[in-house]
Every structure is written in structure tokens, then in C-alpha cells.
Amino acid sequence: MGQTYTKQEQEPASEDVIEVAPGILRMQLPISMPGLGHVNCYALIDGDGVALVDPGLPGEDSWDALMRRLKQAGIPLERVHTTIVTHSHPDHYGGSAQLHEVAGAEILTHESFVSFSSEASDDMGAEALDMSDDEILQLWKTRMETEQTAWGTNREAPPDEALLRFIREGARSGQRFLTPSPTIRVADNAAMRFADRDWFCVHTPGHTIDHLCLWDPEQGVLLSGDHVLPTITPHIAGSTDLEDPLATFFASLDRVAALEGVTTVLPAHGHPMDEAAQRCGHIKIHHDERLDVLRDAAEGLGDAPVDEWMKVLFRERSWGGMAASETYAHLEHLRILGEAATRRDAEGLLFYEIGAT
């Protein structure tokens, strides 16, 4: 009996190529990341060729899958003139540099796009090809030990398997997978033409500082990236330049919810949706409930570091850098609201006390 997936985003990549809106094909590419089994790569087709949205992870597996999907759709690689990257996470931009190199495709991002890759790996280059796996991991992790989070702990390396994949693919390809360079940077509200109609850029920071949605008012289609997902809520990173990432995310949700005439939401993971405003509301409720969890734990925890508050918000299996970062975003939101006080100890560790302002 096959495995049952309770979350759409966890489902493995289907090999089917499906038209999900006029002139738009969905091609799912395989990924293996916590809570995710695929990424939706959308092909926007018109007489000029094809624009691909979010062309998957770096690496041969994703690239080969993309080539098979394009062949199935009858799209020659040389017809791909643009890749649109919704935000700076590698499961969205991974194939963009190779498409630029092989097909000459432009790389379009929001103007604030930044590379997800750690500077700790940027100067490893081809030397990684001559190292053992253990040597690569040790070098990368040693470099990370010098980097501190905003809340005073050492940065945490990604899982070993993922870390090795990104470093080796980057070294093998001259870093093209790790640090794509956008050739077109667009501003909020900028207009562009794909699939024989006008699309408008909607900057939606929160999940990342550079997240970009594309809005097609003619057909009522919203390409929502990771901003609005059908059955999970996107990670809110506290370790950004945003003063209040959670409040920024709420504002971005409100902006999308206010779009008039949305009939089809095409997310980066999961299946198409037909109700943008309702889903935006549900996501906000989820985070409001997380804030209440922190408030309810205040008496028992007292003055505690972020990692202790993290254990209140997340199950043990999720403890780690991402969970701590999202916890920090929620605690900072409460601090800015005037509901929490902070202090740093002699080691630089940040402590929060809710209700003590």
C-alpha cells in the first residue's frame, strides 16, 4: 500500500505535465527537503518561447527531470528565453544559471534578490572536488562556527547530505548553481509580458526579503511562490535585515488577499488553489496562535534564550536553526509590540521575557 501524504507539499514529484491555466503548464521537479517532496516549475508559453518559473534544485537529478518534462511538453530547450525566480532559496533558483548558460535564458528576480548560499562555501571552488566528504563537511562547519545568529548562538549547518550536494554541484559547475546572477531585476508593480498577457510584480517579503509573486489580472492567475502555500505555512526567517519579519509577512499576506479577481493561485509546492484571501487569512491565524503559545508559556519560562522558547513552539524533531530563526521572528514581533523585554548575557546570548516590559 502506498504512503499517504497529509500535506500536499510533501507529495513526490509527478511526471505529469498539466495545463493549469491558459498558456501555463505545471511541471513538478523532485526535491528532498524537510516537509517537501517537489517544486512546481511553471512554463509560461507564447509565440516568443517559454518562461520557466522556479526551475528546481541544483544538481543532475533535478536538471534531468526538467529536461524530461520539457521534452514531454514538446518544448525545445532553446525556446526557454527567461527563468523567473520567485525568491532566493535553492529549490527555486537551482537550475537558473544552467538555463542561462545552456539556453541563454535571462534570469529574472526581484531587485532585492540575494544568494541563499553561505559565504562560508563561496571560496571553496574546485578544491572541494579533491576532498573526501568528511573533509568537506568539516571545513564548511568549521567556517560556520565563526558566524553568529542575531540571538547569539553559532549558525547551524544544513543536513550533511544537502550540504555535500550543494558544495559539490557548485564546485563542479564553477559555482553557477550556488550563486546565480540575475540578468533582470524588477521592482514592485513592474509590468512584463509572458504567455501573451501582462503580469505585474508583487513584492511579498516575509518568507524571504526578496520574495516575488506574479499577478495576471486578465486571467485572474497568481503565481504565489512560497508566499501562499495550500497546506503548510512558509518559514519566517528571523535572521534577515527586516526589522519585524512577521509583521512584514502579515502585510504581504494582506496585500495578496486584497487583489481583486484572483481565480487561480499557483503555488511553488502543492496543488492550485482558487481562494487566495481565505488561505492568507488562515496563515495569519496560524501565526497569531503561535504568538499565543509564547504568551501562555511566559510564566513557566520566565527569562529564557531563543532556543528554550523554540522548544515551546516546535516538536523536538524540528528543533534546529530554522525553528530557532522562526521563533526569534515571533519573539521580536512581541518585543516590537511592547510585550517582551530582552537582555544579553556576558556571552552575547539574547534572552527574552514576555510580559515584563
Question: Can you describe this structure?
Answer:
The structure is a single chain. This protein has 357 residues and is of the alpha/beta class. It has three domains: 8-115 and 180-274, Ribonuclease Z/Hydroxyacylglutathione hydrolase-like (Metallo-beta-lactamase, Chain A, 4-Layer Sandwich); 119-172, no CATH class; 290-354, Winged helix-like DNA-binding domain superfamily/Winged helix DNA-binding domain (Arc Repressor Mutant, subunit A, Orthogonal Bundle), CATH 1.10.10. It is 33% helix and 23% strand. It is built from ten helices and 15 strands. It has helices at 60-73, 90-93, 96-103, 119-122, 133-144, 160-172, 245-257, 276-301, 306-313, 321-337; strands at 17-21, 24-33, 36-46, 49-53, 80-84, 106-110, 184-186, 191-194, 197-203, 212-216, 221-225, 264-267, 304-305, 340-344, 350-354. It has a seven-stranded mixed β-sheet with strand order 1-2-3-4-5-6-7. Helix 7 (245-257) links the parallel strand 11 and strand 12. Helix 7 packs antiparallel against helix 8 (276-301) and helix 9 packs across helix 10 (321-337). The chain is globular. The termini are far apart.
Task: Briefly summarize what is shown.
The protein is an alpha/beta fold and 357 residues long. The protein is 33% helix and 23% strand.
Which term fits the overall shape? globular
Question: What's the CATH topology label of the largest domain?
Answer: Metallo-beta-lactamase, Chain A
Strand content: 15-25%
Class of secondary structure makeup: alpha/beta
CATH architecture type of the largest domain? 4-Layer Sandwich
Biggest sheet features? 7 strands, mixed
Number of helices: 10
**Major sheet strand order:** 1-2-3-4-5-6-7
Average of the residue pLDDT scores:
88
